[in-house]
Write a structure and sequence with these properties.
By secondary structure, the protein is an alpha/beta fold. It has helices at residues 7-10, 23-33, 52-60, 94-100, 119-123, 132-135, 148-158, 177-190, 193-201, 205-208, 222-232, 251-256; strands spanning 16-18, 38-42, 45-50, 82-85, 103-107, 113-118, 141-143, 162-167, 170-176, 216-217, 236-241, 244-250. A hairpin with a 2-residue loop joins strand 11 (236-241) and strand 12 (244-250).
Amino acid sequence: MTEELFVKDVMSRPVTIAKSAVITEALDKMLDQGIDPLIVVNNNAVVGTVSRGSVAEKLGMKHNSAISPNSIHVANTVEEDFTTVYPDQDIEILVPLLQAYKLVVVYDEDHRLIGKVSAEDLLKVYRPNAALEDVMEEACTIDIEERVVHLRRRMLDDHITQFIVTDQDQVAGIVTETDVAVAMRNFREIVDDKHQDHRIRNLLVKDIMSKPVLSVPDGVPVDAVIDLMVSKHISAVPVTRDDCLAGLVTRKSLIRAL
């Protein structure tokens, strides 16, 4: 890039939620504003973050089955997956930070919250100079008939945030932490506690996946993929080659390529 850029040039308005709020409010706010995670505050001080993944994990726990999602507070899902910078620091400092953290919180000189930088914020103006194949990663797949309980276990054990859903080796959809969080919230709200254990074991990936999938063909410019991800607020885009799944471009893979 030819011009010097600073954190203040890429940061966006901080979106916060109170530690005392319930996780359904946090999830709705993330979905409504297309962001992940939220900054959690307590008495105007930043105490952590709450993500779609942490909401999905909390709602999927068996010992929470008797508790309404509207009774679980953000305080029970707070993560410390963030770090801090100041607005006049060079933009280059954000690259290694966003490779390690989901969110960078921006403070002024008086340690007051004035902004945030996510991978999406950075990628709007600072992009890898690379070919599509250089920013792809291997796509994790899961069969359309697989059970959601097995999906959740793979997500938790292997730290996977999204799967491409396949049906007889063809791409049928995508399932992410967002899909799991929304499905678990809806499930807990409509299924009586005494039936939940049985019903949830019969819940299949095809019941919660998102479709159709926004994908791109191999060879598309990286800028076009980023524009798609930013405009749709999506974290991953499958890449196809000869109608077959070739890989996945994610926010993380793009940040790693910077």
